[in-house]
TrEMBL record:
<comment type="function">
    <text>Catalyzes the reduction of the delta-24 double bond of sterol intermediates during cholesterol biosynthesis. In addition to its cholesterol-synthesizing activity, can protect cells from oxidative stress by reducing caspase 3 activity during apoptosis induced by oxidative stress. Also protects against amyloid-beta peptide-induced apoptosis.</text>
</comment>
<dbReference type="InterPro" id="IPR036318">
    <property type="entry name" value="FAD-bd_PCMH-like_sf"/>
</dbReference>
<dbReference type="GO" id="GO:0000246">
    <property type="term" value="F:Delta24(24-1) sterol reductase activity"/>
</dbReference>
<keyword id="KW-0732">Signal</keyword>
<keyword id="KW-1133">Transmembrane helix</keyword>
<dbReference type="InterPro" id="IPR006094">
    <property type="entry name" value="Oxid_FAD_bind_N"/>
</dbReference>
<keyword id="KW-0472">Membrane</keyword>
<keyword id="KW-1207">Sterol metabolism</keyword>
<comment type="similarity">
    <text>Belongs to the FAD-binding oxidoreductase/transferase type 4 family.</text>
</comment>
<keyword id="KW-0521">NADP</keyword>
<feature type="domain" description="FAD-binding PCMH-type">
    <location>
        <begin position="60"/>
        <end position="234"/>
    </location>
</feature>
<keyword id="KW-0812">Transmembrane</keyword>
<keyword id="KW-0256">Endoplasmic reticulum</keyword>
<keyword id="KW-0285">Flavoprotein</keyword>
<dbReference type="GO" id="GO:0008203">
    <property type="term" value="P:cholesterol metabolic process"/>
</dbReference>
<dbReference type="GO" id="GO:0071949">
    <property type="term" value="F:FAD binding"/>
</dbReference>
<keyword id="KW-0560">Oxidoreductase</keyword>
Amino acid sequence: MSALWSVGAGLLLLLLWVRHRGLEAVLVHHRWLFVCLFLLPLSILFDIYYQLRAWAVWRLHSAPRQHAQRVRHIQEQVREWKKEGSKRYMCTGRPGWLTVSLRVGKYKKTHKNIMINLMDVLEVDSERQVVRVEPLVSMGQLTAYLNPMGWTIPVVPELDDLTVGGLIMGTGIESSSHIYGLFQHTCVAYELVLADGSLVRCSPTENSDLFYAVPWSCGTLGFLVAAEIKMIPAKKYIKIHYQPVRGLQKICEKFTEESKKKENSFVEGLMYSLDEAVIMTGVLTDEAEQSKINRIGNYYKPWFFKHVEKYLKADRTGVEYIPSRHYYHRHTRSIFWELQDIIPFGNNPVFRYLFGWMVPPKISLLKLTQGEAIRKLYEQHHVVQDMLVPMKSLEKSIQTFHVDLNVYPIWLCPFILPNNPGMVHPKGDEPELYVDIGAYGEPKSKQFEARASMRQMEKFVRSVHGFQMLYADCYMTREEFWDMFDGSLYHKLREQMNCKDAFPEVYDKICKAARH
């Protein structure tokens, strides 16, 4: 009973303190308090619900039968929209706060919301080495489903909550992308409900124009209802080699060299300053030295980027064997390094052992509860950006990131970009090696000003024929946007399929200049 009195008294004092300071001030300056007391427990409940649901669907084998029924319901909603006179654009009915993107889409309030409840794995075809899934299947859900069967997908983008639909309509990348390309390049077919309510399948040999136009279109050509993704055999471990490198030129040379080696199953770099980095290479294996196994995904383990930094501080190389699923989601617990700004003591051993099993909070819940004050604060003093630039421009790009942003760590992830039709392809006729430069955190550059600095970055990326990931804040004008992206196929299909009255143009959906 005394323990209950203590808890009650503590909560009362907390409420009085919140009332004294003001709820908004507490949420802005002591956000960790709200996150630890409310969002972490809520995130656990979310996970339990979705895991129980996925287990029930798997036990009852109900996904394929319900899929056809749900797709018909989507078609009915689209046809109803047409009967109503097609007065408003359509969009998915999924609330904006549920998406992993930090951008808050206001269009949901003005557009016709089409409810799409498609979140199941439909079929695993071992002969074709293809898995067929619905668009709301998450990466955590998919790897948990496939790995026990001995399969995985070639590109497993980092965070557990990233969905197949988001990765196709936007994009996705992983440290295996120097071999397999972006997430879209591992897909072999899409199924969409179009603006007229028809259901269409597209692949490189069937409705190929639509197949190549769908990636990066952000749901402005139709509603994705299923996708077929290549599978590859899974192995138990990833053998990781850690290599500290100093000096920007040496970092770029070493990273480029390792990215060109096809014997490396995985290549990744973490830059901790302008001239300090750790470059990691990995290979798939079923054998491991027991003394070197690191189950980095266990809740009490150090955050991965902090673990990697130890090799830099000690100035030594190292080899570890990380269980495959732990490796695929190695940055999930710390949301790369974003969680250190939300829970500053989150990597403390005491916190990890006592509460690490609750981490991370759902990004969707962070968005839902951030409030206008935090949103504006983040917009002006925080960046979350991924810029895709040719590998030959890596050194110049890092220098530009340093001057304009000065955010560390920086994530480096190589990928091969094939010369396929669509919005994103290399300048020449041949595939080209690119690199994703990811900057997440608070800029330390003294001249940083969100709009001006990001427009300067976007201008640089356009000048080297690079691309900006569209989940992030984009400040380009319409002309600048279509200078960065190839809109020829996209615009042709929007005209052919009567999309102009059904869906907004991708620029109007994602760019700040269009939304404000």
